[in-house]
């Protein structure tokens, strides 16, 4: 199979879809790799490293899309990439269709095969291709929140861990999954007083068993959230419903009950956000203020630490990429139920329930698409 790795062109996105080690592994299986010149520079990988691993470097993004049967990326295609995508071309990347109506319709129109990292799901309900970036974003959230709590950046002027004789900051984490757990651990490690909320009592019991003593677990409901945000200095939104829009746990009217300079970090913003007033921002302009509350809503947080993120992502995606390349997407998805759940849009049809519901589109059963496909 001919596999293409284009340079990411989303604002301040420095990650790349495949490392030189990933290229070498796919070459070992007999596949051809086309890498756009400069694609790995932001992550610290030179063109020469890709060439030594067996890839051919091409000068433009159009060259890569034009020749590749399968595209491996990090973030969803943006508008200028839409015309480059060919019918029947396999795109293996993060899509987050449930928060992007324009993107959804564009991929339907292009009749590509869109296999989304974020909805590849194991029988255990784990999301193996989302976990590494969730770990990175979760660990970054308190780090970014601590920065924007500084007064010159319009925060409350509070040191997250406090000092002897002065109380530490109160950090509220909404969601006890991968992002929330990592955020709570880092915030607690910095010395903050942390409250983590979730709707699963079983998950709260698990968290209670291994979290340090400065982390409290509280059942998540509207009343408890409204009470907690009154004293929170930093709120981390870490809610995920796979492939679907995140629910709004903090609404516009709640902002008036927060203290001026409170910081909100909505890690769920690429799935629509769990804070109503959040809208996607970039690393170039990461924050905005509503009702004196600082909103940090960067949709590609791990892009700020591209070396770590690219290595972590390739570690997770490469085994699936090898299956797709070796077997073809149809047979790979027939054999691997986790990969099959990654299919979101196929040949102009929406095959993932969360995407169809988000934009009121007809849903086609994925099995019927696979039955009609030839290897």
From TrEMBL:
Cross-referenced Pfam families: AlaDh_PNT_C (PF01262), AlaDh_PNT_N (PF05222)
Domain of life (superkingdom): Bacteria
InterPro entries linked: Ala_DH, Ala_DH/PNT_CS2, AlaDH/PNT_CS1, AlaDH/PNT_N, AlaDH/PNT_NAD(H)-bd, NAD(P)-bd_dom_sf
Catalytic activity: L-alanine + NAD(+) + H2O = pyruvate + NH4(+) + NADH + H(+)
Record domain Alanine dehydrogenase/pyridine nucleotide transhydrogenase NAD(H)-binding: where: 149-297
Residues given in the record as substrate binding sites: 15, 75
Annotated Alanine dehydrogenase/pyridine nucleotide transhydrogenase N-terminal domain residues: 4-137
Alphabetical UniProt keywords: NAD, Nucleotide-binding, Oxidoreductase
Record GO terms (molecular function): alanine dehydrogenase activity; nucleotide binding
Entry binding sites for NAD(+): 134, 198, 203, 220, 239-240, 267-270, 298-301
Keyword Ligase part of the UniProt annotation: no
GO cellular component terms, A-Z: plasma membrane
Annotated GO biological process: L-alanine catabolic process
SUPFAM superfamilies hit by this protein: Formate/glycerate dehydrogenase catalytic domain-like, NAD(P)-binding Rossmann-fold domains
Protein family per UniProt: Belongs to the AlaDH/PNT family.
Annotated protein name in UniProt: Alanine dehydrogenase
